[in-house]
Amino acid sequence: MTIFINAGLMAVLIGAGYFFSKSLPLKKHFFPALAIKIFAGLVIGWLYWTYYGHGDTIVYYQESLKAHEAINQKEDLLDFVVKGTIPEYAEGIICCERQPRTRFMIRIVTGLGWAFGPGYYWIATWFSLFSFLGMWLVANRIAIGFPKLKLAALIGFLYFPSVVMWSSGLTKESLAMGSLSLAIWALINLPGERPTRRGIFHGLVFILSFILLWKVKYFYAGLFAGLLPGLFITSIALKKQWLPKKFQMLIWAGITILTFVVVNFSHINFRFDRVSEVIMLNHDGLVEMSRPDNIIHYKDLDGSFSALVTNTPKAVFSGLFRPLPWEGGNMLKLASGIENLLLMLMVLAALFSLRKTRIEQQVLFWTVLTYIVLLAWIIAFTTPNLGTLVRYKVGFLPFLILFTLPAAREVMVRIINRNKLE
Question: pLDDT category, 141, cuts 50, 70, 90?
Fold first, then answer.
């Protein structure tokens, strides 16, 4: 029965998705990209269950089974899924009470198991479908709004191997990338809309997506929230001609700094006086569990502000481009290394291209670039394990590809044309 329920409902939803995608610019990629996404989610599950033998994805599932067994009243189970409350007779059975994001994931998996049956790979496929929905919509919306970025959006969000792999299956990253993409898609659709039903719908999607993003990856959400007002206000001011273009970056920088001061109070780990402490707690905890040859080694990293500044260039480089092919490891790490080498060449091509190209939308460019660099910086310091770093980079990789692929393609065309002339 579980097979028929899941397969039937998925088929209906996929069919509806294809029907509504017929007018979209990337429509011919709907089924290929979706098939790769679902397959990647199944591979992730297979890797963790048969190769690694442990991991967050296994914890979420096993703890959800405990919840189903321990909470034997339907009303109590729904209370746990919706509110997170556990009845007295089940207290202490389900783990991670002091890890709110892990507990939240367990609640979601428990809810999906209750609704569709507690099969790991079915639940993983639902996660993959949600991630695909958000990334499919935002890729198409970018292709509509920025036709020159159509190919980059297609590859960055739907086909780049690491992005597809690590934003699929029963993982936090699936929900994070799905919700982040949905929030961006809704946000792009909001400007210029009058208070119509469509506008209300997009506003609601944005709010719900942001809440989900905050629940599973609060630092993604914190960066997003910190950068959004500066982009939004400056863009409107330019559009309404309230602001001379020569002052746009100054206004954007001022609003962004003020917003981050406000974000500083939204979570205890965002407080300026705790940043170093939080970084060191995460860094040291992961270093203890990692092999020495599989971590980023920083110089005299003692938690001081000066040590963070000194090690920032290495952190940003590592966050963006490591592991590299010659750093050894398993096949996944080698594949990621080859990808990173390609990304490095693309970034160099983009930097070369910028010397001869005028940036048309400076505020948008610097907003996305700031997001990429800050997230790479955070991840590299808090997640110095090179294997784990591969997975966490998915939060900015689509945007890095979006910015660098067009420039790399342009440089390649120039080289090819020059060789033809010779």
Answer: very high
